[in-house]
Design a protein that fits this description.
The radius of gyration is 27 Å and the shape is globular. The strands form 7 sheets. It has a 7-stranded mixed beta sheet. A 6-stranded mixed beta sheet has the order 13-21-20-19-14-28. Strands 1-2-3-4 form a 4-stranded mixed beta sheet. With 765 residues, the chain is α+β, with helices and mostly antiparallel strands. The protein has 25 helices and 28 strands.
């Protein structure tokens, strides 16, 4: 029987492989690539070779790739497995993935370096990915967080090295049988070949496991990305998403899908903003309620536990818990402080290049912009399952920062972190919501009190009310023109009045502060990470970026797109206004300032050609925006032309044309999905997603009330990727950042009305 026929008859289903089914009698590689004191969390089976690490190969030929990042729809499981498969020479049909718990072996060092201001007292020394401080922190704290598009930067190289070592070992085992030089063997499509002879991986793993790998690993030459033409598009079907079949047939397990014997279900209530403390509730109202297992009270929540989630939810409604505190938050009043701070607040200088202050003593043009608080609006609300038995806690949860989540749960019930076992599950959406750990703490406390496995799921209104939001911001941008230059910019200054949102987030994540305590501790701190992207991507000699820290009683944090999602809106809207004052085509105005940024200029040209740019003239309904992340030599770029107008019901976006440069593309299909998904998410931020707070409660409090785009609202999208030999860049945030300003500029072209607030058409924050 042909090896491929044997592969098709493997007794391991695709779904089991994806779930991380153990493969006995195999080869595990890459352990020698890291210092030995960072233990692997993969426990080998009775017939496995005890190497630990990144990749296992079974005697049946199945290749299992360890994935230390949270799958939340972005396709990271497929991308990392794709990297391993190409380097190894595996047939994609024999590849599966296994989510792995946090360990120093899987540290995300680039992210630890970027977030150094949040955890280090010496961020200047720890902020370099090559810094020993960043590596030491990441490895000793098993910091494998999924965020900021760092998966490829952190894991492509070690994954390739592991796969290359495994490939060499398999070739060496085959070469020993055939008495040839192993470098003469080819490894591809799951076979080791030499001339007319070939062997499958499964036939070689036992012998390969006894050999020593070459040092350094023999990496393949990685080709540069091809242009996203029909020829390049043909590459995508060769590596389809591993999680897609199970998601289509409904068998894929998300956090809320976990089921355990004797499990019960919990719902919860938290206090309104400004009134966090539980005061009273009516237990008599649920006396004798059939199916109610327990009522668990804490200082900051009331939970009901039932034989079904519906029973628990009905019990909470009947008990009508009341919370107290200093004062319920009214966002209309709270956010007025942001506008006032633009004129009166104390400024912290974040960026200072040249002599912007002198040149802008009397700006030639200035304009104010604002964004409202926005909620994440994931399909799956916060959910986690816990079992506490014999002083040990087991936790099933979708966590973007799994080790910090594990430690927070342990602390909440007074046990050691090593007594907590975390089983990583996929998230039904996150948009950075699952960097928060409050539901992990709560489910651990509830399970420890009830004594049975418990699954806690927040109701939608609790998700909106209790999860920190994308911060509200008021911004003032000022520009000075060079004399008699046709509008060429001499100076630029941006002033952002906003909470220290990343500081707040860091205090919650690394110091386990409550949301209110984080607000208090971050008050008055300058926050460069919260102002990321405020430096315009143009050749302007004199630039100043100021943060005005404003403490407001609305907890804030990260959301997909992060700071770029608002700084790009400010910058690209302002650039359009400056182009109009100069009497210039917005495209030509931008392109003249990109002489030192050829990759960005190329994106801009491609996008306008794709869209048939007509100069942005009044009435065309076309708007342009661009975003660059990183330096001239690395990072990602996107330029987008939106076609939009005002119609019955609000903003109508009909087309989005985007040109994208993300360096060498690992998986074209997933890169396209990420750009398209990002553009739609950006559309949602442009037209909705925002909340206000009345009496401390979010308004609206349902998905239907957020003005999210429906399928009928989704525009035609044309995406073109530019070929590049630069390092790969994660595209997940680019579309989010570029869509709102492109749409705002298109609306100005269509209507002659300039909208300077997000969401668009809103009259105020």
């Amino acid at each position: 029987m042909d090896w491929r026929e044997q592969l098709d008859q493997l007794p391991v289903t695709r779904r089991q492989i994806i779930a991380g089914a153990a493969v006995g009698g195999g080869l595990a590689v890459a352990w020698w690539l890291w210092p030995r004191h960072y233990a692997s969390p993969l426990a080998p089976g009775p017939n496995d070779r005890d190497f630990g690490g990144w990749i296992t190969i079974g005697t049946d030929g199945v290749v299992t790739v360890a994935v230390p990042q949270l799958e939340m729809g972005q396709g990271v499981t497929t991308v990392l497995a794709h990297v391993a498969a190409v380097e190894l020479g595996a047939d994609w049909r024999q590849v599966g993935v296994e989510p792995v718990p946090p360990a120093g072996l899987y540290a995300n060092i680039p992210l630890a370096a970027k977030w150094a201001p949040l955890w280090s007292r010496l961020p200047g020394l720890a902020g370099d990915p090559d810094s020993r401080l960043a590596e030491s922190f990441a490895r000793s704290n098993a910091f494998a967080a999924t965020a900021d598009g760092t998966s490829l930067a952190a894991y492509e190289t070690p994954m390739r090295e592991a796969a290359a070592s495994a490939r060499a070992l398999l070739a060496m085992a085959a070469a020993a049988r055939w008495e040839v030089d192993w470098e003469e063997c080819e490894v591809e499509q799951g076979l080791v070949r030499h001339g007319d002879r070939q062997l499958g991986f499964g036939a070689l793993v036992d012998e390969a496991a006894e050999l020593d790998p070459p040092d350094p690993p023999p990496l393949r030459v990685v080709p540069a990305s091809e242009e996203a033409s029909p020829a390049a598009a043909e590459l995508a079907p060769a590596f389809p998403r591993l999680d897609l079949p199970a998601k289509v047939d409904g068998s894929f397990l998300f956090a809320a899908d976990i089921r355990l014997p004797n499990m019960v279900y919990a719902s919860i209530r938290h206090g309104p903003l400004g009134q966090p403390d539980l005061a009273r509730f009516d237990t008599a109202a649920v006396a004798g309620l059939n199916g109610l297992v327990a009522v668990v009270k804490s200082r900051r929540y009331l939970a009901a536990v039932g034989e079904s989630w519906w029973i628990a939810e009905q019990a909470l409604k009947a008990m009508r818990p009341t919370f107290v505190g200093p004062k319920a938050v009214e966002s209309a009043g709270a956010l007025q402080a942001l506008d006032a701070a633009l004129d009166e607040g104390e400024t912290e200088r974040i960026v200072d290049e040249g002599d912007a202050d002198d040149l802008l003593a009397r700006p030639d043009y200035a304009q104010d912009y604002a964004v409202a608080p926005a909620v994440h609006a994931t399909i799956e609300t916060a959910s986690a399952t816990a079992r506490f038995d014999g002083g040990k806690l087991e936790l099933w949860i979708a966590a973007q920062a799994p080790e910090l989540t594990r430690r927070a749960a342990a602390k909440a019930i007074g046990i050691a972190p090593q007594d907590v076992v975390l089983y990583p599950t996929a998230a039904g959406g996150s948009f950075d919501a699952r960097l928060e750990r409050r539901h992990a703490i709560e489910v651990a406390q509830i399970a420890s009190e009830v004594g049975r496995p418990v699954q806690l799921t927040w109701p939608r209104v609790q998700e909106f009310q209790s999860l920190p939001v994308r911060p509200a911001i008021s911004a003032r941008l000022e520009a000075g023109f060079e004399p008699a230059s046709g509008g060429r910019l001499a100076a630029w200054r941006a002033r952002l009045a906003m909470p220290s949102a990343m500081r707040e987030f860091g205090l919650r994540l690394f110091d386990n502060k409550t949301p209110q305590a984080a607000i208090e501790h971050a008050a008055g701190d300058a926050d460069a990470l919260a102002c990321e992207g405020a430096v315009p991507p143009y050749a302007i000699a004199n630039v100043a970026i100021d943060h005005v820290p404003v403490s407001i009683p609305i907890p804030s944090g990260r959301m997909r797109g992060n700071a770029l999602a608002y700084t790009a809106f400010f910058t690209e809207s302002f650039i359009d206004e400056l182009a109009e004052r100069a009497g210039r085509d917005p495209f030509l105005y931008r392109i003249e300032m990109l002489g030192k940024s050829p990759r960005m200029a190329d994106c801009l040209r491609r996008a306008t050609r794709l869209a048939g740019w007509d100069g942005g003239r009044r009435g065309t309904g076309q708007g342009l925006a661009m975003v660059r992340v990183g330096s001239r030599d690395d990072g990602g770029r996107i330029a987008c032309v939106a076609q939009a107008t005002l119609a019955e019901g609000g903003v109508r976006v009909t087309k989005l044309h985007a040109a994208v440069d993300i360096g060498r593309i690992v998986n074209h299909d997933i890169a396209r999905q990420q750009i398209e998904g990002g553009l739609i998410f950006g559309l949602s931020l442009a037209t909705g997603s925002s909340v206000a707070y009345e009496d401390g409660k979010p308004v609206p409090n349902t998905l239907a009330g957020l003005s999210l785009p429906t399928l009928a609202d989704c525009p035609e999208m044309v995406i073109e990727f530019l070929p590049s030999e630069a390092p790969p860049f994660d595209p997940g945030e680019l579309g989010v950042a570029v869509a709102p300003p492109a749409i705002a500029n298109a609306l100005y072209s269509a209507t002659g009305v300039r909208f300077r607030r997000l969401p668009l058409l809103s009259e105020g924050l």
